[in-house]
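Study this protein:
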Amino acid sequence: MKLRHNRIITDALREIRNTFSRFLSLLVLSALAVCFLAGLRATAPDMKKSADLYFDQQNLMDLHVLSTLGLTDEDAEALAQQPGVAAVERAYTVDAVVHLTDNDYIVKILSFTEDPGINAPRLVEGRLPQNARECLVEPLLLEETGLQLGDTLTLDTGDGDYADALRTETFTIVGTADSPLYVGTDRGTSSLGTGKVSAFVLLPLSAFSMETYTDFYLLAEGAESLLCYDDAYTDRIDSLTDSLEALANVIEEPEGTQIDVVRTEPVTTAPGQTAESQQIATETASIVGTSAPAAPKPPTLVELRAFVAARSTPQTRPRIRALLAGYGVAKLTDLPESDYLDLMREVEAL
């Protein structure tokens, strides 16, 4: 039986032969489109895995515990004994002003511990502090202030409750580092200066002279083996959060004290500034050289709690509760976000 030629195939081959350059162009464009779409599909999972690897390497916290009256060693021991808690790290957080020639530069001061500390900084240049008079800074701070390694940095914590939070005001810059606590360009807000934090400074625990801790950072058992963007991780952390919030409700604290357990949200933005943190992708959010500072970004609930906690004393607690009652709420979590700044101004005036 004689096979007949397929006229469609014959016509297609003839068309390709007669217009080969056009065919080749369409083939290349189609291949590029396929490669581009395949890259898009692979990028998101790769970014999530890279971020999760970075978080695990730096021991990024799973939970953040705050209290309006500060936290003690006894609180840390009680948390460490709870099922599902793998580690508890005591920490301090304080805002400060660096007085420059032309303006004031607001920084967030964070405590850190060396390996295997939680939220371990990743050294970029220089070395880690070896005593309470040395500090690490993020690379952006050197870029915006003109300071260099070996220079001294004077930190002014103001005249409020944190006036004596540090053992000394002058520190030697011995290195630069990224922190897993900051994976974006925002450094938060402050009650000092313009209200916008521009960079962070890392100090050893021995540099602080506070009677109580401002923060606890927690690691959850088994969380390191889970991808922080998966539902399994979210379910495990939510379960631990619920159990710790129940513990906070029964801890015997002075009237008016509020203990909050805050879940760490995985970032969904791309890594940037250094190999991977977006601390790691720091924007030039400088207030250096600006003639008119921008309006401060509305604070988050975590920042509001920290702000109120810093100013909560036996004398001011009744007045703070009265302020909340004026807004028609009994606790900070019920306050509308639009009223955060107004409440902060009123608390600052107490």
